[in-house]
């Protein structure tokens, strides 16, 4: 899914996908390092997570985020 979204974000250009590691393109929300990295990424951001829906931050559902 991250590869597909990365290609959509880069208008189909695979250069960004090949040159930037997965953990920088879509950092994990549930880790402190990943959260800091995600906040530093330019918008629109890609964020990875395996959190169950019950543990996902409530603010994400009140925002314009695509989940």
From TrEMBL:
It comes from the Eukaryota. Coiled coil: none annotated. Keywords: Transferase. The keyword Isomerase does not apply. It is an enzyme of class 2 (transferase). Residues 1-67 form the Sulfotransferase domain. Its EC number is 2.8.2.-. This is Sulfotransferase.
